[in-house]
Amino acid sequence: MKHDKAVVVFSGGQDSTTCLFWALKNFKEVEVVTFDYGQRHALEIECAKHIAQELNVRHHILNMSLLNQLAPNALTRDDIEINEGEEGELPSTFVPGRNLVFLSFAGILASQIGAKHIVTGVCETDFSGYPDCRDAFVKSLNVTLNLSMDTSFVIHTPLMWINKAETWALADQLGAFDFVRQKTLTCYNGIIADGCGECPACKLRLQGMEAYVQSLR
Ligand SMILES: [Zn+2]
């Protein structure tokens, strides 16, 4: 792997930034791809850009706003503003199979930039439980991508079986604990680093960090 090139699916959040550090350790060359699909805080894209710049990796931003055409609200009403979900709910823009689409585009990009490896921060232990984030799906898509392009991609999911505390532990092992804590955006309210402290994403992130810090004592 040390001599190979990888592309990391990258949102600028805790998970994908940890994956980026993992990739930088394991591959000779790393590029990242961010999917811009409109409903995210513009700040999230900016945050991803800054991290990519700081770590000196080439950053591809793909406009996936077409997904909004398939969002539940857009299908039923065209006069509803696209909103983030209420606490704990899926955003109104959530589209089933989204990760299928994103990973497929990551595969096309990987083929074009000559990357054999695709790294994604999807996780089965995650509360979301989207079917296209599960291990069996990712393995199945890996086969499909290889058949579709007659290539031999390897999809890596370093976070698949670990919880939030273990994700912090991994960041720490990679020497990136402070970087991930200070530069990434997880908060639904768009506040970088430790966030608003109130939203479900912030609570999950903080609980994980506290559990990890506790385990060191
Ligand atoms: Zn928050």
TrEMBL record:
Belongs to the QueC family. It comes from Solibacillus kalamii. PANTHER family: 7-CYANO-7-DEAZAGUANINE SYNTHASE. ATP binds at residues 10-20. SUPFAM superfamilies: Adenine nucleotide alpha hydrolases-like. This is 7-cyano-7-deazaguanine synthase. Its cofactor is Zn(2+). InterPro entries: QueC (IPR018317), Rossmann-like_a/b/a_fold (IPR014729). Pathway: Purine metabolism; 7-cyano-7-deazaguanine biosynthesis. Catalyzes the ATP-dependent conversion of 7-carboxy-7-deazaguanine (CDG) to 7-cyano-7-deazaguanine (preQ(0)). It catalyses: 7-carboxy-7-carbaguanine + NH4(+) + 2 ATP = 7-cyano-7-carbaguanine + 2 AMP + 2 diphosphate + 2 H(+).
